[in-house]
């Protein structure tokens, strides 16, 4: 991990006997003086077989070693170099070390079996999904997704009260572990605080402060399975007209037909108030992209995201399908909103989704015959469901039935 005291006895014993050791500069610099073999810094793990070959061409005794930080099976290059060495005819022995998660958990006196651990290249647009998949997420940061980026994301996505632990330079002499809410850290960053590039960040959304807990409990109490009450959602800025919204009963059927699962990527195209996005974000640990070009509607989506504590919603303030090129490949897509008289825009959206992922599940809502005709022309095997909802309303001393506008849901067939 950086501190030679963290080496296991077996690893230390092997390294002390090794005539040659290759690794990254940071790790080689950390090895204790008792390890006396030649040290070679590699620039890429693909260099390691060549380094061993050159050494064996000159020497025939001893066992050369490659060293990596942490546990060899925990987001380590060791698993990538293993087959490279075996293809060159080497017999490979792997000696594991201590993981960042193990070490941090011990420093916090906390178990870590419930943490979701994220490492490797990340995109900012997938950060919400990673956080949304678990109440406890441990990030091994890199030069792009830094502690500052994660903290800013939480504060901007309605999770400012989540508890964040930033663990810097673990096991080194300048180790520092600090915990605060994302909002508190954000204020410290604005005041000039910075964090080491060698950091791990633990995001704990299990409590998130009194305000966040209250919001999440209120949302959970309303949700049941799916179908939030319509009046849960903010539909207009003060003094403005309501933005169109998919109603509760229709949303319940939409969620049933989409069948979202943990880890999936979901596009809500023409998101409006974000009511479908909120349903999806809280139904499972998925990555939700609320795509909406109307600025007023985007503002409402952000308000509803905060109200539901649904930080795994990313608001994409651009028009479809042009914006698809910069988004991850979708597993499921709901196309709502309004379409023009010819339905040409919804046709282009469907084509763009199928180009991105021919196996994506696509569900389109239509309240007019033109859109229905255009969508079914694209896919003649599509399943069409017509939903008519009638609610009671008070008329004097009577309760009369008031029909809502009928809605068609069109389930397009995916590639087999």
Shape: elongated
Report how far apart the termini are.
47 Å
- Average pLDDT metric: 88
Low-confidence stretches: 209-213
Number of strands: 17
Helical amount: 25-40%
Radius of gyration based on Cα positions: 27 Å
Q: Biggest β-sheet, characterized? A: 7 strands, mixed
Quaternary status of these chains? single chain
Major β-sheet strand ordering: 11-10-9-12-13-17-14
| Helix-and-strand structural type | alpha/beta
Total of helices: 14
Strand content: 15-25%
List keywords for this structure.
single chain, 416 residues, alpha/beta, 7-stranded mixed β-sheet, 5-stranded mixed β-sheet, elongated
Write the layout of secondary structure elements.
Elements: H1 9-17, E1 20-23, H2 25-30, E2 38-41, H3 48-58, E3 65-67, H4 78-87, H5 100-108, E4 116-118, H6 127-132, E5 136-140, H7 147-156, E6 163-168, E7 176-181, H8 182-190, E8 199-204, H9 209-223, H10 248-258, E9 265-269, H11 275-283, E10 287-291, H12 295-307, E11 313-316, E12 332-335, H13 344-356, E13 361-366, H14 369-378, E14 383-387, E15 390-395, E16 398-403, E17 407-412
Helix pairs in contact: 7-8, 13-14
Summarize the structure.
This protein is α/β, with parallel strands linked by helices. The chain has 14 helices and 17 strands.
Describe what you observe in this structure.
This protein has helices at residues 9-17, 25-30, 48-58, 78-87, 100-108, 127-132, 147-156, 182-190, 209-223, 248-258, 275-283, 295-307, 344-356, 369-378, and strands at 20-23, 38-41, 65-67, 116-118, 136-140, 163-168, 176-181, 199-204, 265-269, 287-291, 313-316, 332-335, 361-366, 383-387, 390-395, 398-403, 407-412. Strand 10 (287-291), helix 12 and strand 11 form a beta-alpha-beta unit. The chain is an alpha/beta fold. It has a 7-stranded mixed β-sheet with strand order 11-10-9-12-13-17-14, with helices on both faces. It has 14 helices and 17 strands.
């Amino acid at each position: 991990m950086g501190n030679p005291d963290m080496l296991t006895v077996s690893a230390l014993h092997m390294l002390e006997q090794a005539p040659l050791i290759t690794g990254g500069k940071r790790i080689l610099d950390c090895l204790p003086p008792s390890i006396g073999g030649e040290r070679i810094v590699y620039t890429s793990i693909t260099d390691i077989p060549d380094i061993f070959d050159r050494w064996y061409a000159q020497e025939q005794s001893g066992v050369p070693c490659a060293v990596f930080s942490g546990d060899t099976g925990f987001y380590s290059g060791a698993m990538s170099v293993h087959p490279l060495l075996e293809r060159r005819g080497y017999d490979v022995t792997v000696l594991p070390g201590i993981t960042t998660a193990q070490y941090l958990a011990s420093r916090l006196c906390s178990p870590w079996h419930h943490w979701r651990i994220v490492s490797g290249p990340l995109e900012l647009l997938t950060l919400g999904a990673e956080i949304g998949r678990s109440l406890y997420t441990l990030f091994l940061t890199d030069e792009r997704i830094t502690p500052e980026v994660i903290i800013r994301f939480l504060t901007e996505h309605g999770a400012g009260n989540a508890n964040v632990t930033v663990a810097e330079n673990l096991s080194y002499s300048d180790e520092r572990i600090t915990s605060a809410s994302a909002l508190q850290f954000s204020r410290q960053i604005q005041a000039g605080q910075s964090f080491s590039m060698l950091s791990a960040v633990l995001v704990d959304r299990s409590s998130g402060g009194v305000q966040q807990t209250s919001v999440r409990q209120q949302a959970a109490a309303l949700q049941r399975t799916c179908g939030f009450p319509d009046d849960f959602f903010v539909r207009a800025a003060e003094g403005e007209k309501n933005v169109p919204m998919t109603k509760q009963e229709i949303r319940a059927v939409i969620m049933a037909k989409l069948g979202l699962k943990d880890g999936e990527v979901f596009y809500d195209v023409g998101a409006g108030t974000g009511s479908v996005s909120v349903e999806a974000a809280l139904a499972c640990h998925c990555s939700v992209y609320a795509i909406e070009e109307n600025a007023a509607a985007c503002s409402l989506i952000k308000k509803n995201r905060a109200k539901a504590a649904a930080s795994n919603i990313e608001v994409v303030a651009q028009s479809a399908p042009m914006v698809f090129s910069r988004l991850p490949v979708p597993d499921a897509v709901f196309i709502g909103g309004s379409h023009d008289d010819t339905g040409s825009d919804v046709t282009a959206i469907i084509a763009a989704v199928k180009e991105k992922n021919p196996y994506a599940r696509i569900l389109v809502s239509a309240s007019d015959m033109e859109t229905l005709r255009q969508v079914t022309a694209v896919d003649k095997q599509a399943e069409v469901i017509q939903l008519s909802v009638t609610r009671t309303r008070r008329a004097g001393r009577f309760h009369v039935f008031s029909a809502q506008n009928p809605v068609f849901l069109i389930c397009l067939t995916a590639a087999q």
